[in-house]
Amino acid sequence: MLSPLVQLRVACGVCAGVAVGTTAFRLLVRFRKNRLWIDDILAAFSMCALTTQLVAIFLTPNQRNGVARYYLIATMFYAAIWSARLSIMFAVIRIARTLQPTRFLYFIAALFLLTWIILTVQVFWECEPNPSWKRMKMPQCTLSRGVPIIQIVTDVLSDSSLLVVTSRLFLIFQEKKLRWRLTVIFGTCIITTVVSFVHAAYLIEAKGITILTAAVVEDSTSLIVCNIPVIVTAIIKLRKQDTLPSSPDDLPNFCVPGTPVSETRPISATLIISGSGSHKYSP
């Protein structure tokens, strides 16, 4: 029977390994197509945060590194999950910026960043007033019930906002197959909300080492979901018989803002923009 610490490391290693692998594939695809943008940088940052968190988990806890290890795991948890959410938001902005004003989307992204900062600071103002946990054999701060409640609220609100803004964006596409694919791809962000409920439940019940497992699973799931659009798009494009535009990358002005439509690569799709008629492109 494996010890709880070994089980934790195995579970976290597997989950994080899948997340890191999908991110590496995403970055490779975007780099080869010369389409790296802010959303890819944020995904890479999330991968680095998750890797740092995993390294801290694999460190053997003791009195010397215990406190630093705990704070590193806690702060990297928020860094990984919120940078993944920001990556999804900037993927939406990347699509929408040639079709409609994006000021409101940037405002939501700023709220995501502010929430990330507040939740990170909350760890310190919860733990520092009561330093007794720092003398434990395996230091772990006991958080109040307000922390998981705030986590659930922010997770639900952020994921709901992603679903709303992407759903509105999908409505501008007349092509049903493209709209269905994008809806399914971006709709998977609801998975992170489900996983966050599990993590919050462990926080409320203070189930020790299982809290770390749930945290890494939530981070890994968020990063995998963040990478799904690029991975699915790459797989679809391997199907030679599928000639319909299957990726936001096929939209005019997608990578170079301000480029005239006539100078971009044509596509065989119809875009319907509310209040501005329809624009047709044909090969």
Automatic annotation (TrEMBL):
Q: Which Pfam families match?
A: Fung_rhodopsin (PF20684)
Task: Kindly list the residue ranges recorded as spanning the membrane.
Answer: 6-29, 41-59, 71-92, 104-125, 183-204
Q: Does the keyword Transmembrane apply?
A: yes
Q: What is the membrane topology listed in the Swiss-Prot or TrEMBL record?
A: Multi-pass membrane protein
Localization, per the record, is: Membrane
InterPro entries in the record:
Rhodopsin_dom_fungi, SAT4-like
Q: Which UniProt keywords apply?
A: Membrane, Transmembrane, Transmembrane helix
Write out the similarity annotation.
Belongs to the SAT4 family.
Q: What is this protein called?
A: Rhodopsin domain-containing protein
Organism for this UniProt entry: Macrolepiota fuliginosa MF-IS2
